[in-house]
Amino acid sequence: MGRLRRLILALGWLAMAVVTALGGAGIATSLNHPPDSGARPELTWAGDRLAAQALAVAASRLQSLSDAVDALGDSSKNALASLVAGDTAALTAALDRGSAQLATVSAETSQLQAALAAVPFTDAQAPLHVSGSTIARYQQLAAAPALTRNLESDWAVLSARSMAASAVPDLLAQHDQQTAAAAKEGEAGHYQQALALLDAPDATIAQARSLAASLSSTVDVSTLIQWLDRQAAYDAALRQLYQAMLSAHGRVTAAVRAAFAAEEAAKAGLPANTRGIVVIMGDIAQGGLNQAVIDIEIARGSIAGVMADEQGSSGSPASPGSSQPASPAAGEGGSSPPASQPPSAAPGASGSPAESSPPAASGSPEPTPPP
């Protein structure tokens, strides 16, 4: 009898331990809630839906703006490459295209701003009407127009300075042709005519020096100055030789010999080819012009980044109507009620059974009535 009593007491204590353990587990489970954002989609669904429609339009405008900035970036790089290559015609064409594309960028920026202004619930009361994800999406789109703010000034720097710099190769080539014409007259013994013709290359050198001075604030013109100094030194030596020949009346005097030696030394100091012009144009491109192109490329990349973020948040490429928030009343299959119905008016929300059964599948046999 005592043994049975002890067994009953042991079973009782075991049962109490099990009940206590289960109760503790329940309390721990009830206290250990999973992370919760506090979002109430059923409260912001209508606002999110209205905002999504307007944001999709803004995203479409952003795509158009991105395309315009891409085209402007291509034109800026083509213009710089044409400048360095000394291709004035290609440079002019690239600058003309870029100016037209800049106007498109300005127009697209204005249209994007108008589309953003049409987005509802963007004031301080927005959290009462739309979800945090909708607010974040609006904010990232709203940052895009500011990215084009400096493009006009960047393009103005690139256009003005590249056109000014494009005159450098033309001036250098013009100088060489003028000096060659004077030298041809001197070789023919027409020293007076040769001296008169040397006035033209002197004027061209002066014009080139003035251009170099205007570029010197932002451009390294040291190579250009050295080139001009050597050309001017040769012109001066040639002028001195022709004056000595006129003074000697055809005789070979010490002055003529000295002038001839000076002319030979100046000629030896001339560049052997036109590769120096490429260096000169490269120096000019690096001073301010490269930076303008870099600034345009930075804006281009920043807008592309906004585009990527927008497509990530909307889940698809930007297009009007491409992004609609799902109704909180949607079932597990992800379907949502018709647009004209709020979440509470979804079919079957009242719990009543459907009033009619679906039609029988085609080809299935009709049920046979009982005899």
Features:
single chain; 371 residues; mainly alpha; A middle domain of Talin 1; 2 domains; 70% helix; elongated; disordered C terminus
Task: Write the SSE topology.
Elements: H1 2-31, H2 41-85, H3 88-117, H4 132-142, H5 151-165, H6 167-187, H7 191-197, H8 199-215, H9 222-248, H10 254-268, H11 275-314
Q: What would you say the CATH architecture of the largest domain is?
A: Up-down Bundle
Say how many strands there are: 0
Low-confidence stretches: 316-323, 329-371
- Beta-strand percent range: under 5%
Order of helices and strands: HHHHHHHHHHH
Helix fraction?
55-70%
Structure annotation, total helices: 11
Shape summary: elongated
Biggest beta-sheet profile:
none
Short characterization:
The protein is 70% helix and 0% strand. With 371 residues, the protein is an all-alpha fold.
Task: Give an overview in words.
With 371 residues, the chain is an all-alpha fold. The chain folds into 2 domains: 45-163 and 291-314, A middle domain of Talin 1; 166-288. Helices cover 70% and strands 0% of the residues. It has helices at 2-31, 41-85, 88-117, 132-142, 151-165, 167-187, 191-197, 199-215, 222-248, 254-268, 275-314. Helix 6 (167-187) runs antiparallel to helix 8.
